[in-house]
Design a protein that fits this description.
mainly beta, Immunoglobulin-like, Methylamine Dehydrogenase, Chain H, five-stranded mixed beta sheet
Length: 587
């Protein structure tokens, strides 16, 4: 009995020993982190981490893609990280793997491999990865495509991205380094199937890589409910709603034109006795018009003209304003003139805000950023300008407050008051590179920033006008591709981009917006096609659709354009009160 118990005790101890804690091999290490490309005899760093489920310390070993294996590293913690450096003497593809061993001798499997291409300098540059982006687009609309450049760390590259129809070379190159993610916006002018493609040029050698092509993209024509009208004349700078529901348009030279709600021209007047650049026109309560034009000096804007027209476009009087004798207001550049409830006018002159009486005599002027001005719901004036500043002024010229929404390298050249008393601003952000971004900001009634957006357009962009849509969103108009293309965009009420597009080849800039009741907008700008150079109106629906072009190179019969001599004659004869008052105000 005693011997039996002794045997049973030994068996039990052996059983307990055999069933003790079991050692587990470390987990497979993570794939090594390091460069995917390199040059011979250059030193590169690689790292990885390991984890041991039993909490044991581990050592790591690296396979560099050729014999022999590396020595085991020093012991690191159960979830530690190790770093190695390595160089290769010759070109080739090397698979770098790692495995782990714990202090009890258990070894993990090899990690997934990091493939490292060691390249001869003559093999540079490496083609980027194919561009990735939408595979179905609308012709004329702007879409973003991305690609990743490849090559040794720090290699300086110039990237060209575009379509395989040859328009790639028309896009400006982007400078970056190998491994960067490049984002570029493309537009397909015509319907059809094409592929986005990209290549790079090595800055050191000047050599080009092969083109890398993305998936086919199908571009389709959008059939919108809009229209296009073109007119003899110069660029359209201002579009406003007339009292009868039609349109009143201001063009360079300066010219004023009246059109019906579909853009069909009714009459046009040429006022060459005024300063050359027509900037703004609004209809007054008596169905006449107030016209603002400006003159540009050699080094800075030199002054502006304010002109009063009757309902038929005949010039009644005009007043000319220049900076003060001591230059205290700086150079003035007329932007917009609005009728005020007291039958006077408020004028935004870029560097100053000026109030006049009904005959255009200056009542007061203050120096401030004034690229645009609005009459606020509480009976005051709000001006916006350089630095994205807002200045609130009373009808008597008292500054209530001034707020800088953004620093110096921003501008706000257009503004609208919203139903809640806040404001939407549109302008431009000047970047350190030559690629500027259209800038949109939403503020509350006190000018405090609620949100802002940056829209690069094609290569770069800037905004000349912004308008709230009837559904709560916003239309934006301006220029892109270094002012060579008209730019339109739409945001929803929260500032999210709904779409952005270029109007068409031949439309240089869009300067003016007028929202329509069906959540669309009318945009005006400059236009050229072949030998024809003139003005253009675009009717855009809420989805960005425009529709077929309707070119009207001249005035309809009986339109009654006034001659230059007659215009100059009326400028003298039809300003009796203003003439009798003398030269008061700013001259």
């Amino acid at each position: 009995m005693t011997g039996f118990c002794r045997v049973g005790l030994v068996s039990a101890v052996a059983l307990v020993f055999a069933c003790g804690p079991r050692n587990h091999a470390p987990d497979v290490p993570a794939i090594p982190v390091g460069p995917a490309y390199g040059l011979p005899d250059s030193v590169y760093a690689f790292s990885t981490s390991a984890f041991d489920p039993d909490g044991d310390s581990v050592a790591l070993q690296v396979a560099w893609g050729y014999s022999p294996l590396s020595h085991w590293s020093g012991v690191i913690g159960s979830d530690g990280q190790a770093v190695w450096t390595r160089s290769w003497h010759g070109p080739g593809n090397y698979s770098v793997r790692v495995r782990a061993r714990d202090t009890k001798g258990a070894v993990s499997d090899w990690s997934p491999a990091l493939d490292v291409d060691i390249l001869s300098p003559s093999a540079l540059p490496v083609s980027p990865l194919p561009p990735v982006g939408p595979t179905s687009v609308l012709a004329g609309f702007i879409y973003e495509y991305t690609c990743v450049t490849r090559g040794p760390e720090g290699e300086s590259l110039v990237v060209t991205i575009g379509w395989d129809d040859g328009s790639s070379e028309e896009l400006p190159p982007i400078t970056c380094i190998a491994g960067d993610t490049v984002r570029e916006r493309l537009v397909s002018w015509e319907p059809g199937t094409k592929k986005p493609r990209v290549r790079v040029r090595d800055l050191a050698s000047g050599r080009f890589s092969r083109w890398a092509e993305g998936a086919p993209v199908e571009a389709v024509e959008m059939t919108g409910r809009g229209w296009r009208r073109t007119y003899d004349g110069h660029r359209i700078k201002s579009v406003a709603r007339a009292l009868d529901g039609g349109l009143v348009v201001c063009m360079d030279r300066p010219q004023v034109a009246r059109a019906d709600s579909m853009g069909n021209l009714l009459w046009a007047g040429d006022y060459d006795s005024l300063m050359y650049e027509g900037m703004s026109v609004r209809q007054t309560s008596d169905a006449g018009y107030i016209l603002l034009s400006c003159e540009t000096g050699i080094w800075f804007p030199a002054g502006l003209d304010l002109a009063r027209l009757d309902k038929n476009g005949n010039l009644r009087w005009h007043r000319q304003y220049r900076a003060g004798a001591n230059g205290e207001l700086g150079g003035m550049y007329g932007r917009v003139a609005l009728p005020t409830p007291d039958n006077g006018y408020i004028v935004a002159g870029s560097t100053m805000l000026m109030k006049t009486d009904s005959c255009g005599d200056s009542l007061w002027a203050i120096e401030c950023g004034a690229d645009d001005v609005v009459l606020t719901a509480d009976g005051n004036y709000m001006a916006c300008g350089r630095g994205a500043t807002l200045t609130k002024v009373t009808p008597l010229g008292q500054v209530l407050w001034l707020r800088e929404v953004r620093p110096l390298y921003y501008s706000a050249c257009a503004m609208q008051e919203l139903a809640d008393g806040g404001f939407v601003l549109g302008g431009r952000k000047w970047n350190s590179s030559d690629r500027d971004s259209a800038y949109v900001a939403r503020t509350d009634a006190e000018g405090r920033l609620l949100w802002e957006r940056f829209l690069p357009g094609l290569y770069d962009s800037e905004l000349f006008d912004v308008a709230p849509a009837s559904d709560g969103g916003f239309f934006l108009a301006g220029a892109t591709a270094w002012d060579e293309l008209g730019y339109l965009a739409r945001l929803d009420a929260r500032g999210n981009l709904a779409w952005q597009r270029v109007t068409e080849l031949g439309c240089e800039c869009l300067y003016a917006l007028l929202p329509t009741a069906d959540a669309g907008s009318i945009a005006g700008g400059g236009y050229w096609q072949g030998t024809f150079r003139g003005a253009a109106l675009f009717r855009v629906d809420r989805n960005g659709g425009i529709g077929p072009i309707n070119h009207e190179p001249g005035l309809p019969a009986g339109a009654g354009i006034r001659s230059k001599a007659q215009t100059a004659q009326r400028a003298t004869a039809e300003r009796p009160r203003a003439a009798m008052r003398g030269e008061r105000g700013i001259r």
